[in-house]
Amino acid sequence: MKEIRIHGRGGMGNVTAAELLAEAAFADGKHAQAFPFFGAERQGAPVVAFVRIDDRPIRVRQQVYAPDYLIVQDAGLLFNADVLEGLKPGGAVLVNTTLPGDVLPIGEGFKVYTVPALKVALEVIGRPIINVVMVGAFACATGLVRLEAVTEAIKVRFPGELGEKEALATIKACEQIGECG
Amino acid sequence: MRAILEGSKAVAEAVRLCRPNLVCAYPITPQTHIVEELSRMVAEGSLDAGFVLAESEFGAASVVLGGSAVGGRAYTATSSQGLLLMVEVIFNIAGLRLPVVMTCANRAVSAPINIWNDQQDSVSIRDSGWIQLYVEDNQEAVDTHIQAFRIAEELMIPVMVCMDGYVLTHTVEPVDLPEQEEVDRFLPPYRPKYRLDPDDPFTMGAMVGPEAYMETRYHLHMDMMEARSVIRRVAEEYAESFGRYHGGLVEAYDVEGADVVLVSMGSLLGTMREAVEELREEGLKVGLLKIRCFRPFPKEAIHDALKGVGVVGVIEKDVSLGLEGTLCSEMRAAFCGEESPEISSFVMGLGGRDITVEEIKQVARELAADPACRVEFRGLKEELLRGDEG
User: Fold this and answer.
1) Strand pairing of A111-115 and A178-180?
2) Which domains, from first to last, does chain B contain?
3) B270:A60 CB<8 A
4) How far apart are CA A71 and CA A180, in angstroms?
5) ipTM of this predicted complex?
6) pTM of the model
7) Which member of B174, B267, B268 has the closest CB to residue A31?
């Protein structure tokens, strides 16, 4: 089983990102579970959402304490020590940032992927819709789900022009992934 | 059709498949997504039902009471304070023998106000005369709602499907949704034995004095006892029709020869299955008993399932303040007049506190080491109990 924890701020679409990832994994023929950190969320407040992906049915419902992967939608949250808590040794972090991974406060022993998701979203979608871009970049960086499964999930959820642009943005994002560690 | 969707949406799909005539609710977290979805279905025309947004939960319960009394298939959903506000009507629905189906998206009760999950709300109204079924995952939520209408209408007793708020209602996971034709075959249209009709008037809910009240309550009690066989049979028939079975009244898992058996209701069972598997790998023989039907209470089924078991731990997300976990008390009652295992109460996860695999394993290990019957709250924060500043 692979466990993913998504960190962001209220309003960034963290829950939608988690759900899209689960939907993509399901389309790939896997079992998946997505759920928010159940709370009274407010715009701007740090929030988390969780995803589990496995080849067999998923029964466990505790929160994700030892993730294999982190998706960080706002690099500023990295300055909060909680974000990296429990990340498995050798685990991977995908960060929305224009900075290179080696200047981020992420410590040793983890794989770091960076993607300028905000920049790509503004260029391609014309709006600061980061979450879909991050999910697409996550697919490309980790290979845990197929990018095509992500773009399909996006188009189902956001039919029409918006979904098309978002799908295109994920493809553009995949060309701009930085890697270190 | 296999799909991946949020628990609330899965339940709304299941309710739609049951072709209710009336949906009435007042929105409350975490029930909201269920009724929002049903409201959307009615608005877009994919569900041919009356949808009433009531002015309160008291109103919502009253509207489904009326809708059911005139012969409609009526559905509502609520949580926590909403359920408590309904209570007067809840007792009436059962006493009037109206087969309403309700989803309780389980949530803690105030005060302090808390929107997160535990099961204090539905457990607190266990004596109202409603059948209560607790589901473990969203597939069981779908299947149990379809069974609920069958059970309710066959017995003329209302059914509450209890699903953990957020933990199930807000979780996206794969679910198999039955086809409409399959559900139609399983659940025929509702044909009430009696209903309010201006052309054929009769009185429903007349005042009954000491000369007959007690017999009325006795009838309801005996029918509730009888309901156990119906709940079991409907689950079996459902399995024949749809190929899925989640247990009738209870489900025993790895109980035979177990040193310790853990008992619970609802979504915690999933996490507990994981814990039991790990414990078995570590050499501790732990079994699991899932209580699917809490009312009527399946005494015999519990008794049979736990034959020969010496140590039992009941983990539950409710507490009868001043005593212990409610399910634990009732488990003990199941052994009245018989040799009983040591049955301990573990109150956990109140107000949304997460319960981990490790915590469950710890309960089992401690019971194996010391089986003496006890009552414990687990997962308390010592620093908060001491009242330390900062």
Assistant:
1) antiparallel
2) 2-242 (3.40.50.970), 250-386 (3.40.50.920)
3) yes
4) 15
5) 0.96
6) 0.97
7) B174
